[in-house]
Amino acid sequence: MNWVPCWPPNRRSTVASVRASFAPYAAIPWPRPLLKTPYGILRRNAKASLFPAHRRRPRKHFLRRLLGIQSSIPELLAIVERELAAGYQRIKLKCKPGWDVEVFERVRSRWPGILLSCDANSAYRLHDQEHLESFDGFDLLMIEQPLWHDDFYFHSVLQKRLNTPICLDESIRNRRDALAAIEMGSCKIINIKLGRVGGFSEAIAVHNAALERGIPVWCGGMLESGIGRAHNIALSTLEGFTLPGDVSASARYWTHDIIERKLRCRRK
Question: What is the CATH T-level fold of the domain 53-252, as seen in this structure?
């Protein structure tokens, strides 16, 4: 893909005009933040914030730890214990058919008071509705993306049968998707990833749409370096980000991060 025609901007460019220049590439959002995010920062002086003051609020960042599918439940329990001791306030478990109810039972029985959620990564189908209803017995904060990655309708059908909130992740690519999901009742929580929606401008638009309609959001992450995680922290200062997000320590993925001061998680 040739990005040269829309880059670099000139001195008269604004964040909005740069955003518009990427419109022909709307179907491939992930590369866009590589250019849009640095430009947005350069447009502001060193003392300015990325966001208007009325939309921000200083606060502690409550962190969550994503735990993948392990070789055994005892191995998973040992990892949960270690991460809770390290200061993470929410544990999110990957789940799929055959690795769900028993896992939740073991974790919840050992730590009845922790914030616990699960991420299905589209592992279930509508014929699994009765099985998914059993998740309501584990006081989960959310079930993330249980059905198809591009679906709204069937998630809305499922949400009507569940007490546990559905969180949509991959389905939400822009503000229009967020509005559609909220209007259809497809979810009660939205995950916002900077890369998935194409950068700060669209992430803020998704946040604002959710905030205005009373839908909580949280900041999702990928395998970011310290620079990427700093952007996630900045995004998470917006007032609608009320749930623990993907802001884990540098050591989570990197032996040597590219920032001088490593990001660390600690109890306060």
Answer: TIM Barrel (3.20.20)
